[in-house]
Amino acid sequence: MEVTYLCPHCRGAINADNNIVLSAKTSKNKIGLVLLHEEIGNYSVTLSSSLTVDEGEIADFYCPICHECLNIKKGDSLARYIRLENGVDESFIIISRAYGERITFKVDKNRHIETYGESLSRFIDPEWFL
Ligand SMILES: [Zn+2]
Questions:
Q1: Which of 27, 49, 81, 127 has a CA positioned 20 to 30 A from the CA of residue 87?
Q2: 39: which DSSP letter?
């Protein structure tokens, strides 16, 4: 399956070589790039050298192409981008912005929600990202 991840603002492709690349700024004003594995449910993360982040610390995520913010305004500490499968099937991927919190939602165009991850330890209202 061919998977492309897109910025919801500029629709530029934000994945390369099995990684989704996001620009990040932490609550302690550290900045850098975050590489997330493109496979849903794989939570391996690589950070560029200027970025250090503590467990549980919240980061703001930005598109590395157009620099628009990917944070979801409603709700708490979530970000969103688009997953395109085989060039046709489009869904939203919602991730936690808290470092180490392994939460992923996939919401398709029929608003069907799939939940992935281990530590769904806090309440998240699906209305926040629909
Ligand atoms: Zn963009």
A1: 127
A2: S
Average pLDDT over every residue of 87-108: 93
Mean pLDDT within 32-49: 95
For the chain, strand residue ranges (E) read 3-6, 15-16, 19-26, 31-37, 45-47, 59-62, 78-85, 89-96, 103-108, 113-117
- The CA 65 to ligand 1 mean position distance, Å, reads 5
Q: How many angstroms separate the alpha carbon of residue 98 from the centre of ligand 1?
A: 21
Q: Which domain holds residue 104?
A: 3-128
Query: Tokens at residue 91, please?
Result: 């869904």
Give residue 121 CA to ligand 1 midpoint distance, Å. Answer: 30
81 alpha carbon – ligand 1 mean position (Å): 9
Number of domains in the chain: 1
**pLDDT by residue (tens digit) across 56-79?**
999 999 999 999 999 998 877 999
pTM, to two decimals? 0.92
